[in-house]
Design goal:
This protein is about 65% helix and about 0% strand. The chain is mostly helical. Helix 1 packs across helix 3. The chain is elongated, with a radius of gyration of 20 Å.
Length: about 80
């Protein structure tokens, strides 16, 4: 099992019986009672790498958006002072 593939799976699965109102707790029984389709190892690696890359690109672009919003705010303040 490829770790990056497994990490992405854990992020998207809707765990049944997850306990806790504020802090969610995932127990072994939740994992053991969850069905997962497992492609061959080569496909797992490719899927995991692709989704990891998407996460990275989203993070980088979100940082860029945040910086541009700050720059916009600064420019608007300069304009109206």
């Amino acid at each position: 099992m490829d770790n990056k593939f497994l990490e992405q799976f854990y992020k998207i699965v809707r765990w049944s019986g997850v306990e806790g109102s504020t802090i969610k707790r995932l127990y072994n029984k939740n994992i053991l009672n969850t069905s997962i389709s497992i492609p061959n190892l080569d496909e797992q690696e490719k899927i995991g790498e692709l989704l990891y890359l998407f996460d990275f690109l989203i993070t980088v672009n979100q940082r860029k958006v945040d910086l541009l919003k700050k720059e916009k705010k600064a420019l608007l303040q300069k304009m109206f002072i």
